[in-house]
Amino acid sequence: MLLPLVAEQIVRMVSRDPKDSRLDGRTVWIPRMTYVGARLTAAVFRSVGIDASVVPPSDEQTLALGGLYSSGQECYPEKVTLGDFLRIVHAEDFQPERTAFFMPTAEGPCRFGQYAPYLRQVLDNLGHGDVPVISPTSKNSYDGIAEHGSDVMRTMWRGLVAADALRKMLLRTRPYELSVGDADEAFERSIVIVEEVLSCPGLDLRQRLNKLVDALSESRELFRAVPARYTKDRPLVGVVGEIFCRLNTFSNSDAVRRIEAHGGEVWLSDVGEWVWYTNWSQKRRVARNEGRFSLAMLGAIIKNSVQRREEHRLLSVFEEDFVGYEEPHDLYHQVLKLGWPYLPADGALGEMALSVGKACYLYGKGADGIIDISPFACMNGIVSEAVYPAVSADYNGMPIRNFYFDASSSNMERDLDIFMELVVSYQKRKDQHRRFPACFEA
Ligand code: SF4
């Protein structure tokens, strides 16, 4: 749940007391829930004069340090994010006075709310109480950084939409490339192009949006230029589940590439989905606490519609490329309501309701199977796993399978062969057929 909260965090930062200079001269380290999302988040920080970098790719030391400084009862994403930060602390060239960590937080039963306080505690115990942890619960003055808070908030949202779109183009192109590595190269080059726009200081909102549309158009052409042979017989596997584990390639042992290596194409649930979900939840909360006709409700509606408008503008660049790959434009009716008979979203909060609803949505888009990725012992996967047999039975026997990950093991390698056989068999008899972009017709 890291990146969906980034925009909210930034907004708290942007109204900082200008006299507060505790971030001056520091690099803010961004956790990499998604590689592209973290890169673009860091770019937005830089646009308001904060030096920011993405933590280096996770490795064995990540797990060693994450394990050393945790009790074993924390969830796997906590171990990975903590370990990544501690690698920076343990590096030979670590300079506490030049370091800050960015760790969003949230309220509620999910253990994610403990990540930032726990990081703070670990740093204090290591004698680094002076290293800031930027989080919404901080009572210090990291609640500001520049004068244009809402601008940064909107830039963060645009970055998130762009990150989701670039990842989607990558996953839509890579299985069909003729030369291994071409799609990944287009992806890397696209990130650089978009980063340049997001990190550029001094642009007003309109200028940045126009430049971002241009940058995405340029990126789209890079993907279109990848030599590829698109075929309609490759099975489409929807990947849902816990947001960090499904998106963080280290945590899920590069599950998407494994599915591709087994002959599949992946439709991976994106980060934006979580933002729409939090918007929906916020409106329900506001209606309950302050009434349907309140200023708070008006604010929530305006925020939602501005985000929709900007998303529409940015994604219009990919309209032809995403034929058949359309994300739901109405989360409640197209996702949550479909999942309601199995997990009512007014009671089953969070990703489990999204995962089940999205599985149903993807059935309608012609998916040939669903994989739910979760950290070992996370309740999201456990609850959704309990209802998937009923979902599958109601949806023509579409194969749905949970895969769990932790630091030492996963059941994916063992069971993916069998799952993909089920997928291919379902593909032959399914009644929901896919639509394809024009490149598949050539
Ligand atoms: S959803 Fe599960 S794995 Fe993710 S932060 Fe919450 S408790 Fe941990």
Notes on the protein architecture:
It is built from 16 helices and 8 strands. It has helices at residues 6-14, 35-47, 60-68, 76-90, 115-125, 149-173, 182-199, 205-224, 243-247, 255-261, 272-290, 295-315, 331-339, 351-364, 379-394, 412-429; strands at 27-30, 51-54, 99-102, 133-134, 236-241, 265-268, 369-375, 400-405. The strands form 2 sheets. It has a 4-stranded parallel beta sheet with strand order 2-1-3-4. Strands 6-5-7-8 form a 4-stranded parallel beta sheet, with helices on both faces. The longest helix is centred in the middle third of the chain and has 25 residues, at 149-173. The radius of gyration is 21 Å and the shape is globular. The model is unreliable at 1-7, 9-20 and 136-148 (pLDDT under 50). Bound molecules: iron/sulfur cluster (SF4). The site of iron/sulfur cluster (SF4) has 11 residues, from loops.
Layout of strands and helices, then pairs:
Elements: H1 6-14, E1 27-30, H2 35-47, E2 51-54, H3 60-68, H4 76-90, E3 99-102, H5 115-125, E4 133-134, H6 149-173, H7 182-199, H8 205-224, E5 236-241, H9 243-247, H10 255-261, E6 265-268, H11 272-290, H12 295-315, H13 331-339, H14 351-364, E7 369-375, H15 379-394, E8 400-405, H16 412-429
Parallel strand pairs: 1-2, 1-3, 3-4, 5-6, 5-7, 7-8
Bound molecules: iron/sulfur cluster.
Iron/sulfur cluster binds at residues 1, 75, 77, 110-112, 242, 244, 375, 378, 380.
